[in-house]
Amino acid sequence: MRLPLSKILAIPGVLGFALFLYLTYFKSEDYALYMVPFIIYLIGVYFYQPAIDWWWYQKYPPDIEAPLRKLFDHRLPYYQRLSEKNKQKFRTRVALYIEANDFRPQVIEEIPEDVKGIVAANIVQLTFGQQDYLLNMFERIVIYPGVFPTPQHLDRFHASEIFAEDGVLLFAMDHLMPGTLHADQYFNLGLYEYAKVLRLSRPEVAYPELSEDLWTDFEKISRFPRKKVEEFVGLENLDVWAVSVVFFFSFPEKFKMQLPELYQTHSNLLNQHPAQGEDPVIVPYEAAKT
Q1: What is the pLDDT of residues 171-200, one digit of tens each?
Q2: Pairing mode of beta strands 168-172, 140-144
Q3: CA angle (250, 269, 199) in 5-degree steps
Q4: Can you spell out the DSSP letters for 200-252?
Q5: Which residue, 242, 267, 251, is CA-closest to 78?
Q6: Are strands 140-144 and 102-105 parallel, antiparallel or unpaired?
Q7: Distance of alpha carbon 97 from alpha carbon 138, whole angstroms
Q8: Contact by Cβ (8 Å): 141, 101
């Protein structure tokens, strides 16, 4: 990704401060006063950095790095089906989501870039038919290498969770990656948690009330027994609506055949029709009224 505008703007401030610091130290203390404007300037750039960089990225959209693009090209089925124009939009949204959110490693020292990209790819996929795709209520993503306990579930090691009060998502890296890259073989935790985030972020939308009885249909659609899904996530009593969104994207043709009305409900809500061959977005958000 290109150097953020805030860092470019900081360069003259750093150079000016360094110059007068040098003159103060080696020439005369009278030069110290000239450092003040540069200090104020740098403080202003620091505090306005998010707004500056976001404006810059909106004006000059970034792209993802080559290794992540290669991963999407070869391993991400949803992305592979997009037109070239929408692939560019997808990559831009992924890059902007990574830039706009706070990724925090736990147990590991650093989060691999492909993991950040896969996290972002899930929310971008979910909201690809929407103009507002960031879901700003949740801006912190915590990544563990494997399953983890939390205060809410001290006795259960699990692979994903959200804390609505703090706007935090938590993922186990070793479960998140296969669930996204091999959604026909593993349950997609990314879509599952972001579906819950979507509903919390947009409470004004009329979401369908779904029964636990739908698990019978889910098992026919995915061939994932309920118990196996619960074991993969590490928790019981999963959110049925969020599970339905996962299978809507992971098995769209089977979902449409088994649950046509719910398929249409999801399609209308998300402005997407994943069962069609290419470009799932129904109405380009630029042309949509809502």
Answers
A1: 999 999 999 999 999 999 999 999 999 999
A2: parallel
A3: 85
A4: HH-TTS-PPP--GGGHHHHHHHH---HHHHHHHHT-SS--HHHHHHHHHHHSH
A5: 251
A6: parallel
A7: 11
A8: yes
